[in-house]
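User: Hi! Is it possible to get a structure for several chains at once, not just one? Here's what I have:
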Amino acid sequence: MEIALSNITHRFGDLTALENVSLHAHEGEIVAIIGPSGCGKSTLLSIAGGILKPTSGEVVLRGVPAADTLNEITFIFQDFSLLPWLNVRDNVAFVLKHHALGAAEMQRRIADALERTNLSEFAKALPKQLSGGMRQRVGIARALAVRPAIFLMDEPLSALDAQTRELLLDDILALWQRDHPTILYVTHNFQEAIRIADRVCVLSRRPGRVREIIDIPISRAERGAADHQVEVAALGERLWSLIKEEAIVADRELVAHV
Amino acid sequence: MSDSTAAMNRGGAARERKLVFRGGGFAIEQRTWISVLAFVALIALWQLVTATGLVSPIFLPSPMRVLRALWDLAVSGDLWRHMSASLVRIGYGWLIGTVFGIALGLMVGLFTVARAAGLPLVEAIYPIPKIALLPLLILWLGIGEGSKVATIALSVFFPTAIATFGGVDSVPRNLIRMAQSFNVPLRRIVSQVLIPGALPGILTGFRISIAAALLVLVAAEMIGAQYGIGAFLILTGNMMQTDRLMAGVVVVSLLGLAMSRIVSTVERRLLRWR
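Assistant: Yes, the chains can be modeled jointly so their relative placement is included. Here is the combined structure:
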C-alpha cells in the first residue's frame, strides 16, 4: 500500500509545528524522516497514523492490503508503549483480541510474531524483566501480529544503546526483506536513515517544513560495502549540513516556559 | 630553585595519603528484633507501672487483665456479637462507597463533562467530616442500620473517587494512543488499559478509605447502636470497665491492622508487574 500526506499543517496554540508538509511513500518503499529535535517529525507520524488530527491537510492511503491484514497502518513506538501489567504474549494478544479470529488463528499469529522476533522463550516474561532491546522486539512482534501493510516507526531505536541499535536495525531490515511493507521511519540519526531508507525527507524546524528530499541511489545491500564508503560518507555530510544549524538552535533553546 | 620550591609547596608527587571514605549512611536496614524489642519494652513498662500500684487499675488496668478481659469476651461470645454487627456495617458501607466511588472516579477521569461538573462538587464535599452528616442521615433514614451504613459509604466514596480519577489521570496517554492505533474499542481500552493502569492509585485509595470507614464506624456506633465495637466501647466506658474497654480498643486496632494487611496482600498480588 502507499501513503500520501498532503499539505499537512499543524499548530499547537501559537506554535506552528508543521507547515504545508507533503510526503509520499510508494508501495514497499522506506522513507526516512529526519530533522533536529522539535521539528515535528513525531507529530507528523502521529498524523500519518490517524492518532493526531492535523489543523489542516489530509492523509490518503492507496491500495489493497493483504487478506490477513488486521490493521493496515501500524506504529512502532519510541517508548515501546507496552502494557506493563501484561506479559509478552498477552501484549501481542492485546491487539488481536477484538478481532474475530479463531483460537487457532490467534495462537498462530502470536507464535509466528514471537518467533520472528526471537521472543518465543520469553512469552511469559513481564516487560520490566526485559532489556530495552527486547522490549522493542515485543513492540515489533505486536505490530507483526496484525500483518500491517504500512509501518510507522517513530524513532524506534532512540531509547536503546548503540550496540542494541545495530542489532535491531538489522532486525527491522530483515522484517522489510520478507514482505516488503511500506515504512515511514522517523529518526534524528542520519546514519540510521542512510542505512535503511530509499529516500530521506529532511524537515526544518519551527515551523516544520520539508527542506529537501534526498534519494539514496545505492542499493541497501551495497551500502556497507567498501567501494561505496565515499558515497555514503558524502550523503551523511550532506544530511548533517542540512540539519546542523537548526540542531544547534534546538540545543540552546529552553525546553519549557516558566 | 624557585621552580622546585613551587613544586614542594603544591605538595608534589611525593606526598601520598590514603583516600578517606566519605559515603555511607542514608541506607536504612531492616532490624526486626529492634521492632519486637520496642513492642515488648512498652508492654513491660505498662506492666511495671500497674504492678507497682502507681496508677489505679480503674484508669489503667495491667496488660494481663486486658488480655484476660479479651479472653472472657471471646469465650462468652460477646466479642463476636459486637464484631459481627460492626463487620456487617463496615462491609456494606465500604462496598457501596467503593463501587460508587470507582464509578464516579472513572467518569471524572474519562469525560470532560463529568470532570467539569463532578470535580468541584467532590472537592467541596470531601473535607466535610462525614460523621457530621450522621444526624441528618438519621433524620432521613432512621436510627437503624441505614444511616450508619450510609455514613460509612459516604466516608469511603470520596477518597475512593479522588484516588480513582487520580489513577486514571496517571495512566500514560501514549498507552491509550497505542491501543487506539490498533483500533482497540473503547470498552476494551477502559477495561484493559485504564483500569489496570489506575489500579495502583485505586489501591492506595483503599488504604485511606478503610481507615476512614473504621473511624466513622466506631463513631457512628458510639452515637446510637446496641451492638458494635463502638457501642461496646461507650458501654464499658460508662460502666468504668476499663479492662474490657481497652480490650475493645485492642480489637479495633487489630481490625484495622487486618484490613490493611489484606490491602497489602492484594497489592502484592495484583501489582506484581511494577
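Chain A touches chain B through 23 residues (CB under 8 Å). The beta strands of chain A are 2-12, 15-25, 30-34, 56-62, 73-76, 150-154, 182-187, 199-203, 210-215.

User: Great, thank you!
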